Amino acid sequence: MPFVDHLEELRQRILKVLIAIISAAFISLIFVKPLVRILEAPAGSIRFLQLAPGEFLFVSIKVAGYSGLAISIPYLIFQILKFVLPGLTKRERSLIAPIVSGSAILFFAGIFFAWWALLPAALQFLISYGSDVVEPIWSIEKYLDFVLLLLVSTGIAFQLPVLQLILGVLGIINWKQMLSAWRWVLMAATISGAVLTPSTDPITMLLLATSITVLFFSGILIVALIEKFK
Fold it and tell me: Which residues of 9-38 are buried (b: 16+ CB within 10 A; e: fewer)?
């Protein structure tokens, strides 16, 4: 295929992904109030305020946008893999479905992990710190920015084994090379735990850094098994 045709195919796939995200966001906007109530639940009895006219309207659009992006992540990965499909062997093509399925599962597993472990730990720290001095009454916009960023960033971080699997299947790097870089990965996991968590408490950063490290070694195991039974 000529280079211009490759660019046209890439444009078409980007357009499909954008349409999928916008469609999912529009559907999410219809159910945005139940979604906001679900996102408010971990805060317990904290009161939320609308500090400016139209703040909740913009918050609703933001929540719908994040939700649409989260729902469309598997489709985005599918389009990326379809774009590189012609350059893959028959065996590599057979792994596309498991890769896309695993990516979707890991993304939503990351969101669940953040919801179940990271978010409660972060909120508990932030609520308890200074509670004897100030009453915690939060802006709904600032709170949802915190929650959405933590959920989505954790879901993206959980894509690490998928990236390792793709690199291993394409023969770009093998499991021994991955294992040899474990020191750098530990350092990167620690930095990522500090960067990806909106709060500054050490518990949340430690939990995320540990989960990234576990995912990295799990990815090495998967790549090693694939190479063994190739």
Answer: eeeebeeebeebbeebbeebbeebeebbee
Helix/strand/coil for 139: strand
Instruction: Please give the model's pTM, rounded to 2 decimal places.
Output: 0.78
* Nearest by Cα to 10 from 70, 84, 73, 118: 84
- Asked whether the beta carbons of 175 and 130 are under 8 A apart, the reply is no
What is the C-alpha to C-alpha distance for residues 56 and 165, in angstroms, rounded to an integer? 41
> What is the CB neighbour count within 10 angstroms for residue 215?
21
H helices present in the chain, as ranges:
3-30, 32-40, 55-84, 90-93, 96-113, 119-128, 140-157, 160-169, 175-180, 182-196, 202-228
- Using CA atoms, how far residue 75 sits from 49, 141, 149, 150, 162, in Å, is 36, 28, 21, 22, 14
Residue 135 has pLDDT above 80, yes or no: no
Number of Cα atoms under 13 Å in the Cβ half of residue 216: 22
